[in-house]
Amino acid sequence: MGRVTTESVQTPAGEARIHWYPAAASPPRLVLALGHGAGGGVEARDLRALAEALPADGVTVALVEQPWRVAGKKVAPAPKTLDEAWRALWPALAAPGAPVVAGGRSAGARVACRTAGELGAAGVLALSFPLHPPGKPEKTRADELTGTGLATLTVQGARDPFGRPEEFPPGHEPVAVPYGDHGFAVPKKAEITQEQALEMITEAVRAWLAHLPSGLSTERE
Questions:
Q1: What sign does the dihedral 1-107-157-186 (CA atoms) show?
Q2: Which of 6, 214, 9, 204 is CA-nearest to residue 92?
């Protein structure tokens, strides 16, 4: 993995930051843009695991820090504001010249789903998609996930209170991470370790990305 760099981008919601984890080979095959959730930042364990693992596959990973987080605020703004910032960031994400896969965890996954089609994303990666508020399955957000119109991969913890894998609509069944909660944390007494859980995530994403059209010529592939 090359040297990690941070780029500041001005958006209608304020300054955002892109933390670039460059592909080992240039030019990158794909850019995977990942937004964080409403309760945390780009230090989330699944985002970090993907940023460290995928550059070896020719994928540049861009961890996107939303303006509210950059400003040190503890509460995320309304979805409309999150979407506006994401749209403003898109030209910078596309600058490396490779197809961009829109993704994120939790609230970041919702942003990616809502905007991917209009922005011309190559696909959508939804990590810990909040299918519904905890304990309120009737307040479903399934339409955001099913309405992307693009190749979409969902990865979900088996114990996620925002939506267990078996609750997802037919045709959009997620990759299930055994014992994982909304942050993909697994109990110490689980039959898999935390490291194994993260490996399941990275391997599932790696296999899915390998089948997406890339920006490289057929000779390179």
A1: positive
A2: 9
